[in-house]
Amino acid sequence: MSSVAQKQLPLRPAGPATVERLLDWYDTERRELPWRRAPGKRAKAYNVWLSEIMLQQTTVKAVIPYYKDFLRRWPTVGKLAKADLDEVLAAWAGLGYYSRARNLHACARMIVDEYGGQFPRAERELRKLPGIGPYTSAAIAAIAFGEKAAPVDGNIERVVSRLFALQLPLPAGKPEIKRYASSLVPADRPGDFAQAMMDLGATVCTPKSPSCLTCPLQIDCHALAKGIAAELPRKAPKAERPVRRAHAFVALREDGDILLRRRPTAGLLGGMLEVPSTDWVAANLAKAKALREAPVTSDWWKVPGTVVHTFTHFRLEMQVYFAVVPTDASLQLWAEPERCKWVNRRKLHGEALPSVMKKIINHALTRHED
Ligand code: SF4
Fold first, then answer.
1. Which pTM value belongs to this model?
2. What architecture (CATH level 2) is domain 243-369?
3. Do the bridges between strand 307-310 and strand 273-274 make them parallel or antiparallel, or are there none, so unpaired?
4. Annotation marks residue 52 as catalytic
């Protein structure tokens, strides 16, 4: 990249010619993705919405099978609105950030109940729907409805900050990046422009080593000219993630069922199933106290090692206990039996079980069977 920077390419301000170069590149080099239509054609709002919600915090590769599965189960927003929330959560299991699935379901219902089953076209109207923020509303408006909107995700943030050599660190620099991104959106192909920027960020203008030599925008790029492309966007230093600790209890019944508990609807992993555990707190709970909160009276075995899982705002460190219990084992009252159910270990994949809980169960079962 630096050798390109040293050639002192003639630098022009990014504008309509930049957009044209980017769209030409998109016409031949774009990624083929199941939710996309050919250049110049508008995709269905349902498909754009579904894919964009899934893509938040998740890679394209991980999303594709889930997207196809959702479309197969619920091919329209009306069908999704009629689905059971439990079924939607179970189909979402493994994608993480489960509030997205609950919002997806609530949003489908609102579109049916309040908008006659049609997505609103305007960015401002879309933003009133559950789970749809500034980025997703702009993406749907531009890609599905051809509105002149500028979605700015991490990829686009990077491309724009480099193109204009914007140096204000994130997150304070976000409004400035949004202004510059909006200034480029063309009236005729806003959806293709948004997707072209996403693709450029994902495949060419990558975080650590941008491929400036093959970039269609190299003659427009101020960061390349200044030799600072890989340094942008600048980011304010992150605060360290706090740690929460807990003790989890994997109870395996003699008939092969595992004890699971439904989490409260509101909050983290809301409405999903979990392995019963003590509260997730900063303090270290002593083993004797933790065992008093076991859901079944039994001879609990402390599984060696710790299960660690990183959430957006904290790191969870879980000590795991395991017990084989009789088929008629009765639950302690404080385990809240009405929230608990037994699920056969071979049928766990069909349940709304987050990855962290699968990790805990696997940890207990594999160590026990070693
Ligand atoms: Fe600029 Fe290089 Fe990114 Fe292209 S790949 S936009 S030239 S930094």
1. 0.76
2. Alpha-Beta Complex (3.90)
3. unpaired
4. yes
